[in-house]
Amino acid sequence: MCLDIDDTLLDNESSSRQGLHALVGNDGAWPVWRRTTEEHYARFVAGEIGFDSMCTERTRAFFAAFGEELSNAEAARRESVRMAAMQRAWALFDDAAPCLEWLRAAGLKLAVITNAPSAYQRKKIASVGLADTFDALLISGEVGIAKPEAGIFQAACAALDMRPEEVVHVGDRLDTDAQGASAAGMHGVWLNRGPQRVDPPAGVRVINSLSELPELLVCDLHPDLVQTQGWMPAQDHRMPSPDCREVFGPAR
Predict the structure, then answer these.
(1) CA nearest 167: which of 179, 151, 182, 152?
(2) Which of 220, 204, 218, 222 is CA-nearest to residue 249?
(3) Alpha carbon of 97 to those of 6, 130, 205, 225, 230: distances in Å?
(4) What is the rounded distance in angstroms from the CA atom of residue 49 to the CA atom of residue 30?
(5) CB 78 within 8 Å of CB 59
(6) Rg of the chain (C-alpha set)
(7) pLDDT digits (tens, 9 = 90+) for 24-55
(8) Predicted structure pTM score
(9) Comparing C-alpha atoms, which of 177, 148, 181 is closest to residue 164?
């Protein structure tokens, strides 16, 4: 079982908005910040620029969009304020911990697949209490390959000692996560937390909350979880529906 981190387990948008608020006093310019981030982060993922330089250049570009030209030093200073505020706001989604607990109790091996710099992402994972949760961390800054390239998904399968067709990957990006995993031979699941509900493309499942993942696994992707392990999680974790329990047997 593989999962993305940002906006899948960790509410990155909310913490980023907190950082933007610290930078300019409100988050009204969030669409501009998000667009600027997408442009500059793509350059980092492609290996065109280092993470720290990307952060500084992004901040300069953001203020330039509103007519304020910053020196590198001033952009770096403001970015440090924003970064500190964002890191203080790092937190998991409410559905993340129960889902991870369920996956662990089901005996599944867990891996992270994330596009990020090594030290930064490891700090983030530790800060929200997940340092000892995963069997493997596949971080693009360490692996040298980024999603949606097949190599990073294949590396995760190798780390878990499983074949791609045996592994599910869940992430908030349809193209980067779900379709990338599917193209690599895995089961791609798109976590669409947004209000828009769309039909999934071929080969991709869609869930709207991590609370829906256990039912998807038990009733669709991996029914052998219950058949072979004789285990069913507690109802307070919003686990499989009564129909699934009738198929696979009662909870213990």
Answers:
(1) 182
(2) 218
(3) 14, 9, 21, 19, 23
(4) 23
(5) yes
(6) 19
(7) 999 999 999 999 999 999 999 999 999 999 99
(8) 0.87
(9) 181
